[in-house]
Structure formats: C-alpha cells, structure tokens
Amino acid sequence: MNPNEEEDRVACALANNQTAPPPGVYCEGTFDQWRCWPPTPANSTAYAACPDFVPGFRPELWAHKECTATGTWWTHPETGRPWSNYTTCVKPEDDVSEIIAVYEAGYSVSLVALLLSLGILFYFKSLRCARITVHMNLFASFAANNALWLAWYGLVVRAPDTLEASPGWCRALNATLQYALLTNYTWMLCEGVYLHTVLVSAFVSERRLLRALLAAGWLLPVPPAALNAARRAAADDPLCWMDEGAPRPELAVLVCVAVLLNLGFLCNIVRVLCTKLRAGGGPAGAQRPSATALHALRATCLLAPLLGLQYLLTPFRPPRTASWWLAYEYVSALSTSLQGLCVAVLYCFCNGEVLAQLRRRWRVLTFRPRANSTTNTTVSFVRSAAPGAAEDKV
Question: What domains can you pick out in the chain, each with its CATH number?
Fold first, then answer.
C-alpha cells in the first residue's frame, strides 16, 4: 500500500490539471493508488518509475500503462478495470521462487506435525484437561495458518494471472489469512495467561478460565482483521492485497499488545517461581522444591520461545540491494514456517504425559502372549504320561 496515497493523489490531480492535454484523442490523466499517469495520446504508452515502497520492486525500473486507440486506458480482461503493468518492476535475478519453496516445505512439515499432534490429543481422552485444551487450540490456530499459507502460495503467488487480476476470492483468502495469523498471537497470549493464572491465583475456576480463553483466542482477532479487510476493500488495493510494506496499524496493535503482555507474564512467572523455590528450599537446602513448582518451571522454559519474543528481536527487513538480504530471507523463511513444528514438538512430542500414553498404547499393541500356552502344556503332559500309562497296563 502506498503510505502517501492521499498526498500523491492530490498532487497528481493538481499536476494533471496544470498540464496541457495532448492534441487529438487522448487518455485522461489518472492516479492508480501507486503512480500518477499524465494525459497520454491514443495508441501510445505512458511510463513511470516503479514505486519503492513495494517489496521486491526496483525503483530504477519502469512501469507502463497503455492508452488505446479510443482514448481509454487499457482494461484487464478479467477485472474490466484500467490496469497498469508493474510486472516489469522485478528483475529476473530477483526471483524468489526458491525462498517460496522453503516456506512451502516448512509449512508442510509443520502442518503434518500439528495435525499428528491434534490426532494424538483427540485419541487419548485421558489427556483432556484445561491445559491440554489450550494447547489443542494453539495447534489448531497454527495448522489453519499453515494451511492457508500453502493455499496462498499455490493459488495466488505462483499464479501471476490471478495476482494481476486480483479476483474477489483471492482477496477473501488474504483477509482470512490475516485473521489466522492474528490467532497465532492471541493463542500464544492465552498460553501465557493460563500459566500465569494457574501459578499466581490459588483459587481459580479452570472451566470459566477456559471459556474466557476460548472466546479471547478466536474472537479478539476478528475486529482488526475485519477492519483491515474493509480498509483494503475501500482502497481497492491491487495484487490480491499482497503488498508487504509497513505493518498496518489495525493489525500491528493487537500483535504488539499480545507480545508485550506475554513478556510481562513471563517476567512475573519467573519471579513467582523464584519466590516459591526460595521459600521451599529451606535454610540449608534440605527441603526440595515441590513437584508443582518444578513442573511450572519446565512449562515456563517450554513456553518462552512461543511467547512471541522472537518478533521483538527480529530486525526490519533489509532492502534487496543489501548484501545480506538473501540470507535474511532464508532465515526468516525457516524460522517462520517451522514455528508450527516447534509448537508440536514442545507441547506434544516432548510432553511427558503424551509420551507415557504412547508408550502404554505401544505396549498393548505389541504385546503378544504365547499362542495356546495352556493347550501346549496340556498336550505335552498327556504325551509324556502316555507311555507310563501303557506300562502300568502291562
């Protein structure tokens, strides 16, 4: 999105009003949200420098817009709207297909791990509790986000015609993707809220707490995602709303609040745990810390990487001209796409309760008692006793 769209629109209208139109048939000067196009004679092409605020565009290259013989700007056959050609703003060597492939591979691995984790937790009914339910919703949030990203890359990013036409379904896909991305943050916040509440509040109704977390995790992202979709629809943003410029305020506010709250929860959790451990240590360390405190400490260590702290430490994306841009993109692709795998490993595959259930189930499936052991013993006894019986008769 053009960060100075309104100013550029006004400046474009003023410049076109002050420019004498070309003789004969011509296309009226216009502004397409990114660039100002002057009045252009029919059967000719207007050129403008590529915008520098769109990631991947080279500002030293040129976009163009065709004026037809009838004095109207060329319209795209799929949308029926005037269309500016910005496809020339990307150099061939700037192809990011390999980076997209890394994202797709990472999201696929994460999605498989998350679905497997959800299947395990659904299968073992004995694991059901408020804490596991929060984990399952976190898994579902990441799984939905990963599946939507795979659909986005496959149906939109790898389909230039769809991207240029910007049909309604791909804009709806983008809006749903933004919502799913926000749920990752809200459910990471719910993880922090649950652990903090259980440790700090001695008496709390887990049922009420779980209901509140379910509502917050899935409903808090709805207003900012809807506002973002409404603003982009009103602005009629092109390219399926794909631009990755500066974070939009309606989305960034929820993300920043969730990350900062989780940071505060983590600091207070560590403080409470340290206080409990010191209180339970005894004067000479004779009294060991309680199992509950140690379990909470381990849960905190597992939760820390998922509280969103890595987003506070991630630097701003460098320009493509930077020497370390490609390395940054690969690191970003791996760390982002494999988050779901980390969630599944930390909260399911490394969960002691889950591992105990899997081992118990494995023993049941692999246990094979000796076939017909009682029958074999009886037959052996009869065979060994038969000769003796014959001798008695003799």
Answer: 5-89 (4.10.1240.10), 96-363 (1.20.1070.10)
